[in-house]
Write a structure and sequence with these properties.
Elements (H helix, E strand, L loop, with lengths): L2 H13 L25 H4 L3 H32 L7 H49 L2 H6 L2 H43 L2 H48 L1 H7 L2 H54 L4 H18 L2 H22 L21 E11 L2 E11 L4 E6 L5 H8 L7 E6 L2 E2 L5 H6 L1 E4 L10 H6 L7 H10 L3 H6 L17 H15 L3 E5 L7 H15 L3 E6 L10 E6 L2 E6 L1 H7 L2 H17 L1
Parallel strand pairs: 3-8, 3-9, 6-7, 7-8
Antiparallel strand pairs: 1-2, 1-4, 4-5, 9-10
Helix pairs in contact: 3-4, 3-6, 3-10, 4-6, 4-11, 6-7, 6-10, 6-11, 7-9, 7-11, 9-10, 15-17, 17-18, 19-20
Length: about 625
């Protein structure tokens, strides 16, 4: 890429959108620090042989590069004679060609050899972050913003490659070359040449860093405004129907343009400041080159230097300053890469709220009896949810929990699945405290049919098979048949290969619930949790699916969380909760006979259903 093209690329890089991280992302980081690079060493040092070989090739490439002007000097001096002979300069010319070839080849070999190091490091780090995110608590995932987290992972992984590339293969060789050239000029010519070189480079770097730091505010502001404008546009398109309902197309366009007006102003400032930086860099280089060439020319006139020395000095300067043309861009991108790497590693430092005990053993499910004993729990210390909750679900029996919203019903399911740990008391399965068994074995024994079934944007087959990824096709088909969804699947034009859309939105509520039932059947858990599994459905669909749920609950230890009492009247025991406490318990007829909270709820729901049917 030529200089002009790279300058244009720098402008585009400046103005590329950078997402605004949500408040739930890792806390704001301080000034980027090179110390964060130490986090990369374990991933890079795995291939220490490749790293050392790459560094050796880097040094070799720079030695060959620095030798080129020296050989060019000998060629000029050999030809700058009254009667030059071709034999001597021909040898130098061949050496000149070989050095050029060696410099380029060593650099290419270095890139090829080191590629596996950076790619493997990106893969390992991305995997480590993803696995850690899956290990974090539900609390973290309820607070986080998916887009921000995925962008943190994506940008952090790419930043690894950028950081290593800039620091190891751009900045390091440039500094090495500067030191070698300054030393050569000091030894072969005189100390003034070396001094001018170092002063010019110091001024160049000083101008670059100062102006880059100043113009970064415009770049960041432009990026922020671009993200805001992008977010408004996407939000407007996602709410297309609402915009149309209220005829607010013009209003949405004006909101979008208001964001773009300020972005345009900052983008222009960013571009102008880049022009100022380029002019300052060019001025420093021009002054330094002029002084060096002037002194070399004076030396040639005085006879203390040869014409070859003049050419060598000029070649050294051009060779040194060419990679420094983009020092401002490199400096800013290194800072941004360090920030991205720090943000990604900040995710890895997030503490796991739920950890396996050191002596945790696999859960041994003999019968599947569940026991809550004096359980207290609070999501936040100042807001207790459960108070001294105790109950037992005998093996193979069904227990239902009912109550108003906020009573703590769904919290019971989350505690049993160990999304959170109890504040006090204990939960046991077949006499084993769930805090003393491995999370993997605990969750393998429990199947959940949630209220809001979320499906992957993949085929129906994939979504059902997700219940047990190693299951054979016959088992998947049988699970679909048991969930009464097989006929529907086979009636679709693409059959099992039908893609269900984002979060399963191409399917109706009843179809999604049947897919959820099918994959839970495929998992074949000993303990079943039905968390308001039919509350979002219409009465007809609910009645159909309720029969299927009761069928799969048969002979399994089952916890039903419900709002509609008509869905739990066949349970072996019903708990009524208010404000995190159990206020009534018993079978459906017994609770009606008590004429208490449950009976009152039943009467209200019966009246609502009768009123709705009129």
């Amino acid at each position: 890429m030529d200089v002009k093209s790279e300058k244009q690329a720098a402008i585009l890089t400046d103005l590329m959108p950078h997402p605004v991280h949500s408040h739930s992302a890792p806390p704001p980081l301080g000034e980027p620090s090179l110390r964060s690079i130490s986090h990369l060493f374990p991933y890079l040092w795995e291939f220490r042989g490749r790293v050392l070989l790459s560094l050796a090739l880097l040094v070799g490439a720079k030695l060959a590069s620095v030798a080129v002007p020296l050989v060019l000097k000998e060629i000029i001096d050999a030809l700058d004679r009254p009667r030059p002979e071709l034999v001597l300069p021909l040898a130098f010319i061949l050496g000149y060609g070989l050095l050029r070839f060696a410099s380029a080849t060593f650099s290419d070999l270095r890139d090829v050899i080191f590629a596996k190091v950076t790619q493997r490091a990106m893969r390992r780090i991305s995997m480590a972050v993803l696995q850690h995110l899956h290990a974090l608590s539900l609390r973290f995932h309820l607070e986080r913003q998916t887009g921000g987290i995925t962008r943190d992972i994506e940008r952090g992984a790419k930043a690894v490659s950028s950081l290593v590339g800039f620091l190891l293969f751009r900045i390091t060789p440039t500094i090495l070359e500067i030191l070698m050239v300054a030393g050569i000029l000091f030894v072969k010519l005189d100390w003034v040449f070396g001094l001018i070189t170092l002063i010019t480079l110091a001024a160049y770097i000083g101008f670059t860093i100062t102006i880059t730091e100043w113009r970064t505010q415009f770049v960041r502001r432009a990026n922020t405004l671009d993200s805001e404008a992008y977010g408004r546009a996407i939000d407007s398109l996602l709410n297309y129907e609402t915009v149309k309902y209220f005829g607010n197309e013009k209003y949405e366009a004006e909101r979008y343009d208001n964001s773009l007006v300020e972005w345009e102003r900052m983008a222009l400032k960013s571009q102008r400041s880049l022009g100022m930086l380029n002019a300052a860099q060019a001025g420093v280089i021009a002054i330094g080159v002029t002084l060096m060439v002037l002194r070399a020319a004076a030396g040639v006139v005085e006879g203390t230097l040869t014409l070859g020395d003049l050419v060598m000095v000029n070649a050294f300067l051009l060779q040194m300053f060419q990679p420094l043309n983009f020092l401002g861009v490199m400096y800013r991108q290194i800072k941004e890469s360090i920030t991205d790497v720090e943000r990604m590693f900040a995710l890895l430092k997030r503490p796991r709220e739920i950890e396996d005990a050191k002596d945790a053993r696999p859960l041994d499910v003999a019968a599947g009896a569940v026991k809550f004993e004096h359980v207290d729990f609070a999501y936040n210390p100042d807001r207790p949810i459960l108070h001294d909750v105790s109950f037992t679900i005998p093996a193979g029996k069904t227990l239902a929990v009912v109550g108003s919203s906020g009573a703590g019903k769904s919290t019971l399911a989350r505690l049993l699945f160990r999304f959170y740990d109890v504040g006090a008391g204990s939960i046991a399965i077949d006499g084993q405290d769930i805090r003393q068994v491995t999370q993997d074995s605990l969750r393998a024994a429990i199947g959940v049919v949630p209220q809001d079934t979320v499906l992957f944007n993949d085929s129906i087959y994939y979504n059902i098979a997700y219940g047990r990824p190693g299951a054979g096709r016959d088992e998947v088909v049988e699970a679909a048949r048991a969930a009464h969804i097989l006929d529907f699947i086979e009636s679709l034009p693409q059959g099992w290969d039908t893609v269900v859309g984002e979060r399963g939105l191409k399917l109706s509520g009843g179809e999604k619930q049947r897919v959820a039932i099918a994959r839970t059947l495929l998992k074949n858990p000993a303990i079943l949790i039905l968390d308001e599994a039919t509350s979002a459905l219409d009465t007809r669909t609910e009645n159909a699916i309720q029969a299927e749920l009761l069928e799969i609950a048969r002979d399994r230890t089952t916890l039903i969380i419900a709002h509609r009492l008509s869905t739990v009247d066949e349970a072996d025991e019903i708990l009524v909760m208010e404000n995190g406490r159990i206020v009534e318990r018993g079978r459906h007829p017994e609770l009606l006979a008590k004429n208490g909270v449950y009976a009152h709820m039943w009467a209200l729901q019966q009246q609502a259903e009768e009123g709705g049917g009129k």
